[in-house]
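Input chain follows. Return structure tokens only.
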Amino acid sequence: MKKIAFLILSSLFLLAFTPMLNSDSVERDFFKVTPISHATMVIDWDGTIIYVDPVGGAELFSEQPKPDIILITDIHGDHLDLETIVGINTSKTTIIAPEAVTKKLLGDYKFQIETLDNGEMSTQKEIKIEAIPMYNLREEAKKFHSKGRGNGYVIEKNQKRIYISGDTEDIPEMRALKNIDAAFLCMNLPYTMTVTSAADAVLEFKPKTIYPYHYRGTEGLSDVEKFKSLVEESNPKIEVVQLNWYPKK
């Protein structure tokens, strides 16, 4: 029964969060990010190409450079899609993921995989990668993301640090982060957290720039304008940048 329930839940996630082709990208002082949709993005950092949670079909990445690194945060269908990964040219790609994910990638496919669990680190293409915990705090939401199963990530190069939250609430490990230059932060119910909780966490760990992402839930899109106001009115030094994560059909 548990296996059947998991398959049904994964299918619902995949159907709910199927992305559309999005070519928008934003160049920052040390990296470029192209939002694909929801939790999926492409980061270009000094020519090193990082795909984060590639889902929705390989055709969505047809105009993107081939990945050097793929980061996968969790097992749900809006983060892990084997068909998409198989369709992408990964001949020179290292896939970084938690054990719950890498177990699903092992088999007939010849991926170069490195398992990172919470607190572990790796270096790929001169980029340091640290697996950060991601999990739910509310009792009613713990069934979505249990502690230790998935990863957020901090990636670092030349003393610049990017945080990718994955699916999480405003956990102590997030609040304790230091020296984050750019942060991609989720905020959707019932799966992750409210915009109020997200803003409160941001005001504590103080990233220089914050990008709301992964903000579509069962009741539609979260109020990211409210999030922006809560953050920038309390700390004008933190820049909130809104990207086009949900291109219209």
